[in-house]
Amino acid sequence: MSLIKPRIFAQLSVSPRHCCRLGMVFMCVFSGRVSLYSEVRIVPNDAMLAIGAMSEPLSLEALIRAAFLASGADDNEFDNNVERVLEIIDSLAPLASLDIASRGEAVLEWMHENLLTRYMELQTSLRVLLEKGTYNCVSSAVLYMLLARGIGIPVYGVLTEDHAFCHIPAVGESDGIDVETTTKHGFDAGSRELARDSFTNRTGFVYVPVGKQRKNIGEKELISLIYRNRISVLQRYGGWDEAVGLSLDKWVLTKSQAAMKDYQLSIRNYAIYLNEKKRHVEGLLFLNDAAKTLGKNHGLEDIASTLLGNAVVFNLRDNHIEEARGVLENENLRILVPLDFLAARRVDIMRRELEVAVLGVRDEASFRAALADLDEALASDIIDAKRWEELSLSLWAGEARRKSVGGDWMAGWLLLKDAPRSTRVIPEWDELEAKYEYNAVITYHNRFAAAMRQRRIDAASEILDEGLRQFPNSPILTADKKLLSEHP
After folding, report:
1. Contacts by 108-115, CB closer than 8 A, 24 or more apart
2. Phi then psi dihedrals of residue 407, to 5 deg
3. Backbone phi, psi, residue 216, to 5°
4. Residue 218, phi-psi category: left (phi > 0), alpha (psi -120 to 50), beta (remainder)
C-alpha cells in the first residue's frame, strides 16, 4: 500500500510579489516552524465578532478599534493607539472649513508630513505605522480612511488585483476622487499625472482607473486587507498555526463567502502541515474542532481522510497492525471521514495482516494456516487474483526453502510437486519447481559420481536408479546411466 498524498490546494489569489499583492497561498515547503495544537485559535476575537455584527457605516470608534484589532495590537497598547488616532483627528479639526476635496488632499499631505516615513511592501500594521512610520498600501489606506471619516469626509476602499487605495465618492460635478495613499502627491490620481507617476515610482505598481479591473469595497473589507496581508506573510514563512485564528477573525469581520473560504483554506493548510510532520492524530482532533466553526458544509472530509489514511499507513509500514486498527476504530478520529474510506482502510489492514502472516510462517502448521487465509482473502475480495498468486508463490517458495534446509532439495521438490493444481498454474510456478528439480537431480548426480570415484559400483547403480524413478526424463541422469553401462 502506498502512502496517501495530500492534495495541493490552489492559491486564493495572486502570488505575493509585494505584500500589497493581497493573497493567501498554500506552500509545499515548510520553514521548520513548530507549534502545538493547543496554540491554534479557532475561537474568534470577541471584540471583532461584535464589530462584525454591526452594520456599515461603523461608528468612528468601532472603525478605529477594528483597524487596531486587525493590526494585532495587544491589550497594553490597544487603548493608547485608539486614543492617539482620536487625538490626531481632533488636531485636524481646523480643516473642517475647507471643501471636501481640499480637506481630503490636506489630510493626505498631513499624513506624509507628520506620520509616514518610509514605504515598506510588507508593513501592513496600523500600530507599527504609528510607532515607526513605515507603511504599505493597506496600512496607509486604512489610516487615511480613519482620519478622513473623523473630519467628515466619506471614504471607501478600492481593491485591484494587487493593490488597495481609497476613493472619495462624488463631490459636486466630480464622479469621485481616487486617493493613492502611498504618496504625498497621490490625491486625485485619476486626473493628475503627478499623482500617478509618484505612486508608480514609490510602489512599482501602475494606477488602475475607473472602468478597469477594480472593485469598490466597504470599511470592513478594507480593514480585512490588514488580516489578508498578515496571513499571506505568515503563510510565506510557515506560520500556518497563527494564520488560522487571523483568518477566522477576518471572516467574522466581513462575513463574506470569500473570507469563509480563506478561513477554510487556512484550516486545510495547517492540517497539511501536521500531516507533513506525521502528527496525524493531532491533525484529526484539530479538524474536528475546526469543522464545528464552519458548520455542516465544512468541506474537510478529504483532508481528514488523508490524515487518517496516513496514520494507518505509517503504522502498517512498521507492522503495527493493532495500532493501525486502533486509529481507524477510534470514534474521535473518524468523525469527518466518509464511511467508504473507512471500509477501504479496514481492507488495507486485513491485507497487511495477511501479508505479515505469510511472511511469518515458521512451521508446517503456520504454513497450512496461511494457505487457508489466502484462499479466504481471495474469496472475500480482500486481495485480487494477481495478489493471491504473488502471495501464494511466496508462501510455497518459503516453505520449500524451509524443507530444503541442509541441501535436501528433494524434500522441497516433493512439496512443490504435490501443490494443488490451482497453485501449479501460477505463471512463475514452473520456474520455481524447475529450480528445485534441477538441484535435486544434481544431488543424485553428485552422489552417483562420488560412489563411482570410490568404486562402489553397486551403490552408484542404486543411487542412479532411485534418481531416475523420480526424474526419468533427466538428461543428466540419463547420461550417468550410459556412463555406468560402459563401465568395465
Report:
1. 108/144, 108/179, 108/181, 108/184, 108/186, 108/187, 109/184, 109/187, 110/147, 111/140, 111/143, 111/144, 111/147, 111/181, 112/183, 112/184, 113/184, 115/88, 115/143
2. 90, 10
3. -80, 135
4. beta
d(CA 271, CA 357): 34
Specify the pTM: 0.80
Those residues with Cβ within 8 angstroms of residue 275's Cβ, 6 or more apart along the chain or in another chain: 6, 283, 303, 306, 307, 310
Task: Give the separation between CA 465 and CA 468, rounded to whole angstroms.
Answer: 5
Type of residue at 300 = L
User: In terms of C-beta density within 10 A (0-12 exposed, 13-18 middle, 19 or more buried), how is residue 188 classed?
Assistant: buried
| C-alpha cell belonging to residue 126 | 496600523
Q: What is the CA radius of gyration of the chain?
A: 39
Single out the residue of 153, 263, 166 nearest to residue 223, CA to CA. 166
Q: What is the mean pLDDT of residues 355-373?
A: 93
- Cα-to-chain-centroid distance, residue 65: 35
Neighbours of 432 (CB within 10 A): 18
Q: Are 182 and 137 in contact (CB under 8 A)?
A: yes
Looking at residues 394-407, what average pLDDT do you find? 94
Reported residue count of the chain is 488
* Residue pLDDT, tens place only, 77-124: 888 999 999 999 999 999 989 999 999 999 999 999 999 999 999 999
Residues 6+ apart with CB under 8 A from 330: none
Rounded Cα distance between 80 and 89, Å, is 14
Do the bridges between strand 177-179 and strand 214-217 make them parallel or antiparallel, or are there none, so unpaired? Answer: unpaired
Beta strands 118-119 and 134-135: pairing type? parallel
Tell which residue, 194, 185, 186, 192, has the closest CA to residue 167.
186
- Per-residue DSSP letters for 359-407? HT--SHHHHHHHHHHHHHHHHTTSS-HHHHHHHHHHHHHHHHHHHTTTT
CB contact burial 230-267 (16+ within 10 A = b; e otherwise): bbbebbbebbbbbbbbbbbbbbbbbeeeebbebbbbbb
Q: Which residue in the block uniquely carries the three cell numbers 493581497?
A: 22
Determine how β-strand 156-160 pairs with β-strand 164-168.
Answer: antiparallel
**DSSP label at 456?**
-
| 425 Cβ contact list (under 8 Å, min separation 6) | none
